[in-house]
Design goal:
The complex is a heterotrimer of chains A (272), B (428) and C (292). By secondary structure, chain A is mostly helical. Chain A is built from 14 helices and no strands. In chain A, α3 packs across α14, α8 runs antiparallel to α11 and α9 packs antiparallel against α10. Chain C starts with a helix and ends in a 5-residue tail after the last helix. Classes of the chains: A mainly alpha (272), B alpha/beta (428), C mainly alpha (292). Chains in contact: A-B, A-C, B-C.
Chain lengths: 272, 428, 292
């Protein structure tokens, strides 16, 4: 058995990780404190005993399960939709010369350049027109495509060696076939990164779900968590417990994304 | 090979949209169905208050079978305004909504807002005059009554008894002056122990402004001229009030300047701050402090400022408006409003509540509340009820903030703010 | 000729679904808000048309100008700092040492944590009296700073807070890109005798350039639209030192009930971002290296 020195990278990464993870640590500590411990300032870092009641209160005091489910459903559909539709569009923009492509690309990109507060009301009007207000689909339909995905995948596709695609086309494969059989398998890191990012945004989206949903059991997690934050009083401990629970799926998704990186490298072996 | 796959993708998308549209359309409120009128009420209550509203709404629904009220939580503060504005613009406002009093003048501009004059006149048992003057003032815009009082509060002096005792300062009396406040704050401040005597919210928002306005009124000043066309806060009274703040914050360094994120509350609860100007809403956040409440230290008088909020009714058809009025007049009647106060600790919204038998129990349940109720007598004026108030507030807020940060002198800051406000008031 | 024509059709067919959604929920709402910018509209009472009056007023608005200045300063600092730092961190994380999953997850956490929670933490960290930042500075012999409470420092404190909050995002993009670099190229460079730094400069960096361009464009678009962090900490203050364009726009629309004016600000911002983005694309043509 060989002994190997731990990598010097630990010296850099460990303190960095601590600084980065500090909020989660603080949130976790607050979530197991009693309310009067949480109302201290400077904050109590070493709680006197563990109070798990915040977690039970968070889950019991409201339709927490429904919120969780809604967030999961909305996120999954939005992520899948983006993966499919953005791949199609990004591939066209990356590899096909078609009339108006550049102008269209810039126009679609422009949708990223206006903050949501500005289009909040017209979006509401359109969704209301579709009869979807106060329905979970109101949270899905406007987000089926995010131009960010098109932008990111286009950049990524352009880095792939074109020879493989050209060879396939000569063999008679259609554009769509090339996309599905050649390009997408090579794009797993990019696709899983995009999936993670879209999950992150949908999961943490607050303003639109707040405005589009009125009934408590149709709310998503972020809006639901704000029920612990009143106008003058905030139930810190329960809020933090809720936040920790809300963070878990994102961390899991992140770990899965990292796994897919490793697997795709192993699978592709020698690239190019 | 190309087309079927493409069509397949499009078909999936179409199916998703159809499914989405298909399971949509569950409208959150409908008109009479089977003789029951359903209405929607929006509120921002959480925790104790959230439970209280749900309990009382169910009670109403049980005793009034022809009306069904659904109470929905809408989030809090500014996000709530966005939600309400969007709903109004989108043609789907709730029937009743809790809205800050500071928005009353703007909400009154909407054609959807119901003018309650007629309902009040037709309902003699409602007794509009039993509400405190500050509430009635905050709900009346150019003669239109746009809201039923939902909440009344005021600023009083809340102090940490233990901290004061330790510093050898006798508890504040009803005769305290500004000088008493300043002296006490100086004795309570200890930089080495990171202790402050007083706190002030210094984010330039209305939170910064309304505390200053109380001081302005105490010095005999006014915010605007009687005709509402000119700024009047740059008077000697205003300079005096702002100078007090400057002396305490910049010269004495006895004031913890809160950045607007309410850290002062946790600090007070941890014994780091001796005294606060705050309202009854904060009291529940001080479980670790044995606090006392006193009316504000004064100058020419001991006036305080109140920030009443309203239940605003929106017009979704006469059947629903009638039902909404029925609910809100029930909810704010003496018996129910005292029950609400008992459940939540909120101050009684009707002066007539004080005469009810349950009032003594309310006072004993919530320490400190009695002084806040007494202090309502000192809330004699209201802030200008004009749609321009948010901009006026912003100008004054900048002036106060710049002085507290030591970047400006009171007279210059107020003069500059006054010319800005005059320009705002003069604009067509 | 037939091949070309079917290219146009294929191209449009592939982009059609995405375009449909983005037109409906992106471009049409933007057009609506453009229309709004020519009105005096408080979203409550009946609006009336005022032509270009809002835009004229913008030109003479000192607070708007200040917000533009603040936004530009913020962007010019945030973009290069966050990207350079993210590259360094990504390279450090691009390895298989023990515990690497934990490190990577830790770097990702600030991005996943909601802005509200992040703001709460930084409000505490930067509190002039009780915060950890000043405690550290004092230990090092430096006097206490005002951070969020000091008009001259607040914007830089926001830069620090947002770099911390967003670096993980850039890192995961870079990690994905680094995974895509063929091992053989790196090995070939090593065989040719290139040291680690030389390999990095002449092989890795150029191959990362598409990712870098992407991040520069994306970070700029985001930085120019900064809002949430300001809303949850300084609220545009103190003394408007952190009032950025989107915060100003929000104030106009939802605090002062001047939605038409806010829409005009949004249109100006849109045009500015478009121009900056196009410039970035043009400039990048020479330095970005696509393997195809």
């Amino acid at each position: 058995m060989r002994f190997s020195w731990p990598s010097p990278r630990h010296l850099f990464l460990a303190p960095l990780a601590l600084i980065m993870a500090a909020p989660l640590i603080w949130m976790a500590i607050t979530s197991i404190e009693t309310p009067d411990q949480a109302r201290q300032f400077p904050p109590v870092l070493i709680p006197h005993g563990i109070d798990w009641h915040n977690y039970t209160r968070a889950v019991d005091s409201a339709p927490f399960g429904a919120w969780y489910l809604n967030s999961i459903v909305v996120s999954l559909v939005v992520v899948l939709s983006n993966l499919v539709l953005c791949s199609l569009a990004a591939y066209a923009f990356a590899r096909i010369r078609f009339f108006g492509a550049n102008v269209l690309f810039i126009a679609l990109l422009a949708t990223l350049m206006v903050p949501f507060q500005v289009i909040l009301i017209p979006t509401f009007l359109i969704v209301r027109h579709l009869g979807l207000i106060d329905n979970v689909s109101a949270l899905i339909v406007p987000n089926l495509v995010n131009a960010f995905g098109i932008f990111m995948l286009r950049q990524f596709f352009r880095t792939l060696p074109i020879e493989l695609e050209e060879a396939a086309r000569i063999d008679g494969c259609s554009r769509l076939g090339v996309l599905i059989k050649i390009v997408l398998p090579l794009s797993v890191p990019a696709l899983s990164t995009l999936a993670l990012i879209m999950l992150l945004w949908t999961w943490n989206d607050f303003l639109w779900p707040l405005v589009a949903i009125n009934t408590e059991k149709h709310m998503t997690l972020q809006v639901g968590l704000s029920t612990f934050q009143g106008q003058h009083q905030t139930q810190w401990t329960v809020l933090m417990a809720g936040n920790v629970l809300a963070l878990l799926p994102l961390v899991i998704a992140f770990l899965l994304t990292q796994r897919s990186f490793v697997r795709s490298i192993a699978a592709s072996g020698v690239k190019g | 090979m190309r087309s079927p796959r493409n069509l397949c993708a499009l078909a999936v998308l179409a199916a998703m949209l159809v499914a989405a549209a298909g399971c949509g359309g569950s409208s959150s409120s409908s008109t009479s169905s089977g003789g029951v009128t359903s209405i929607v009420l929006w509120h921002g209550y959480v925790d104790t208050e959230g439970k209280a509203i749900n309990t009382m709404v169910s009670e109403f629904n049980k005793t009034h079978p022809t009306i069904h009220v659904t109470a929905q939580f809408y989030g809090n503060s500014d996000y709530a305004l966005q939600k309400v504005l969007t709903a109004i613009a989108g043609g789907k406002p709730p029937d009743i909504s809790y809205l800050y009093g500071s928005w009353a003048a703007n909400i009154a501009q909407s054609s959807k807002t119901v003018d309650l004059n007629r309902y009040i006149q037709n309902d003699p048992s409602f007794d509009w005059n039993a509400f405190w003057p500050s509430e009635r003032g905050a709900a009346t815009v150019d003669g239109k009554i746009v809201g039923v009082p939902a909440l009344v509060d005021n600023l009083a002096l809340v102090y940490n008894k233990a901290v004061l005792k330790k510093a050898g300062i006798p508890f504040p009396t009803a005769n305290w002056t500004w000088q008493d406040l300043r002296a006490a704050a100086a004795k309570l401040t200890d930089p080495a122990a990171k202790q402050f005597g007083w706190a002030y919210v210094n984010d330039g928002s209305e939170d910064t402004v309304w505390r200053f306005e109380a001081l302005l009124w105490q010095a005999g000043g006014e915010i605007l001229s009687p005709d509402g066309k000119q700024a009047a806060f740059d008077s000697p009274a205003g300079v005096q009030a702002l100078t007090l703040l400057q002396q305490m914050a910049v010269q004495d360094h006895t004031v913890y300047l809160d950045s607007g994120n309410d850290l002062y509350a946790n600090l007070f609860n941890s014994g780091h701050i001796g005294m606060l100007y705050t309202g009854p809403w904060d009291l529940a956040g001080f479980p670790n402090v044995n606090f006392g409440v006193q009316i504000l230290p004064g100058d020419l008088n001991h006036q305080t400022i109140s920030g009443p909020d309203n239940w605003v009714l929106f017009n979704n058809g006469s059947a629903r408006t009638q039902a909404a009025w029925k609910f809100i007049s029930w909810f704010t009647s003496s018996k129910q409003s005292l029950e609400w106060s008992q459940r939540t600790g909120d101050l009684p919204i009707r002066s007539s509540d004080l005469k009810l038998p349950g009032y003594a129990r309310y006072i004993s349940t919530y320490p400190g509340v009695a002084t806040f109720v007494k202090n309502l007598q000192n809330a004699q004026q209201v802030r200008p009820v004009t749609p321009l108030y948010p901009k006026i507030s912003a100008a004054i807020g900048q002036a106060v903030q710049s002085v507290l940060l030591g970047k400006a002198q009171p007279k210059q800051a107020l003069d500059q703010a006054a010319s800005q406000v005059n320009a705002i008031l003069a604009a067509p | 000729m037939r091949l070309l024509r079917s290219d146009h059709v294929t191209g449009w067919l592939l982009v059609a679904p995405a375009t449909l959604v983005l037109v409906a929920f992106g471009l049409i709402p933007i057009a609506w808000s453009a229309v709004l910018s020519f009105q005096h509209n408080d979203l409550l009472s009946a609006p009336h048309w005022v032509g270009t009056a809002n835009y004229q007023a913008l030109r003479h608005d000192p607070v708007f100008r200040k917000s533009v200045h603040n936004t530009v300063v913020y962007t010019v600092l945030f973009v290069p700092i966050s990207i350079a730092a993210a590259l360094a961190v990504a390279v450090a994380l691009n390895t298989r040492i023990r515990g690497i999953s934990i490190y990577r997850t830790a770097v990702f956490i600030p991005v996943a944590v909601s802005t509200v929670a992040t703001a709460i933490i930084f409000n505490w960290v930067f509190d002039p009296t009780y915060g950890i930042a000043n405690w550290l500075l004092n230990e090092l012999g430096i006097s206490s700073q005002g951070f969020f409470q000091d008009p001259d420092q607040a914007l830089y404190a926001i830069v620090a807070m947002t770099v911390w909050g967003w670096i993980g995002f850039d890192v995961i993009i870079y990690l994905a890109a680094l995974q895509g670099i063929p091992q053989e190229l790196l090995e070939a460079a090593a065989i040719d005798g290139a040291g680690r730094w030389a390999t990095f400069r002449s092989v890795t960096l150029p191959l990362l350039s598409p990712a870098t361009l992407f991040l520069v464009v994306w970070s700029t678009i985001n930085a120019l639209q900064l809002f949430d962090e300001i809303y949850n900490t300084t609220r545009g203050g103190p003394l408007q030192s952190t009032t950025v364009v989107v915060y100003y726009l929000w104030q106009q629309a939802f605090q002062f009930f001047n939605a038409g004016y806010g829409a005009a600000v949004a249109e100006v911002l849109l045009v500015a971002i478009l121009v900056v983005t196009l410039l970035q694309f043009l400039i990048s043509r020479r330095s970005v290296y696509y393997t195809s």
